[in-house]
Design a protein that fits this description.
The chain is an alpha/beta fold and 212 residues long. It contains nine helices and seven strands; from the N terminus they run βαβαββαβααβαβααα. The structure holds adenosine-5'-triphosphate (ATP) and magnesium ion (MG). Magnesium ion (MG) is lined by residues 15-16, 39, 43, 80.
């Protein structure tokens, strides 16, 4: 099993969007997928409930209070962490994961909070020693904007160039509304956006190759 923790202390940066899109992408790809919601807001659990029964299954795990057992045979576990997470809780969730994905938005507020979060989690040994790789995802980037360029410069300075850059698209909230993800769709508009996720999936799957 490969397990991915999606985390950033900053609220609203796209953790649940990343978690649900990845979970459904793997389900569509034929993997047995579990999505663990460690956020008391339960957005990922609610998304699982909205997911149509005829779509590839994503098993929902409620980790709001405690870490529940992962179903036998799970190929990919995606963990959606809460905002305002402290180092202690991060460490607990990290024990269950092979790597961390950290979405970040372009704004100055988001960059500031993310810089602080990264410096906090770098005190955690598996992150510092890169035993559990940290992949930053630049999210809701508008190409050609100053905010987008600032975000790239900021991540370069931190030595975490993004493993993927995702554009801002209303399709994401629209799909989430129906318990769907980008990879449930086969139309041209979805396919164009799916290409942005390829480096992210490669980052995760390379990890799998390294572990085996
Ligand atoms: N790439 C994107 N394009 C457009 N909208 C996006 C994108 N990523 C996320 N969003 C939207 O931004 C909002 C916040 O995203 P999301 O809920 O995934 O963030 P979060 O980090 O899980 O928030 P919280 O900290 O509250 O758990 C949602 O309405 C989501 O649909
Ligand atoms: Mg969330």
């Amino acid at each position: 099993m490969l397990a991915i923790l999606v985390s950033n202390a900053k609220g609203g940066c796209g953790k649940t969007t990343l978690a649900t899109t990845l979970a459904s992408a793997y389900a569509v790809g034929g993997f047995k997928v579990a999505l663990a919601d460690a956020d008391p807001q339960q957005s990922a659990l609610a998304w699982c409930e909205r997911r149509p029964a005829d779509k590839p299954r994503v098993r929902a795990l409620d980790w709001g209070k405690r870490i529940a057992k992962v179903p036998k045979g799970t190929d990919r576990l995606i963990i959606d962490a809460p905002a305002a997470i402290g180092v202690a809780r991060f460490k607990t969730l990290l024990k269950m994961a092979d790597a961390v994905l950290l979405p970040v938005l372009p704004s100055a507020f988001d960059r500031g909070a993310t810089g602080r979060f990264i410096s906090h989690i770098e005190s955690v040994k598996p992150i510092r020693k890169n035993r559990k790789p940290l992949g930053v995802v630049a999210n809701m980037v508008r190409p050609g904007t100053r905010a987008g360029r600032r975000l790239m410069a900021f991540l370069d300075d931190l030595d975490y160039p993004p493993v993927a850059t995702l554009r801002a698209r209303t399709l994401y909230p629209e799909l989430a509304e129906d318990g769907l993800g980008l990879f449930d769709r086969g139309d041209k508009a979805a396919k164009i956006l799916q290409a942005e996720w390829t480096p992210l999936v490669t980052f995760i799957e390379t990890l799998g190759a390294d572990l085996s």
